[in-house]
Amino acid sequence: MTDKIDIHTLNNATQAEFIETLAEIYEHSSWIPEKVWHSRPFLSVDNLHQAMLKIVENASIEEKLTLLRAHPQLAGKEAKSGSLTTASTQEQSSANLNALSKKEMDEITSLNQQYIDTHGFPFIIAVKNHDKAGIFNEFRKRINKPYSEEVYSAILQVGLIATFRLAGILKGYEPSA
User: Which residues form a coiled coil (predicted)?
Assistant: First the structure.
C-alpha cells in the first residue's frame, strides 16, 4: 500500500482488507490484526496501537516466542538472500546494515548465532532508534541477559517497531518513541 490511509477508512474496511493492511505491522504475524479487528472501531491510531500491544501482552509465551522467531536476523540470511519483508529491508537499510564491512559482517554473524543459541530467537531492536554503532552496542549488552529479561526486552522492541510501521501506513500518526 503506497498511500497512507486514515483510521476511519481502516475501521470501515472488511476483515480481509483490515488484516491485509496491517499484516506486516508485526513481522509475519497477521494473527495480531486478525484478533484486534474485533475491537473496532478505534478512536485513533494510538488507540489501535494500544489494542495491538495488549494482544501481544496477553498472548501465551508460545505465541510470544512464535512472534519473536518470525523476525529476521539483522543482516542475516534473509537480508543476504533478498527475502526480507519490505519493511524490514527499509529498516535495516536505514541503519546501514546493508553496507557492513567484512569485519562488521563477521561480527554480526557471530552475534546472531550466539544470541539465537542463548535465547532461541533472533536479536530484535527497533533500528530506527539507533545507528549502526548503537545497534552493535545493544547487541553486545543484551546477548548475555537472562532469558526472561530478554524476552521482555524483545517484545518491547517489537512494539516499537510496530509503532514505526503504523506511522508508515496510517495518516496522522507520529510516534513518540
Answer: none
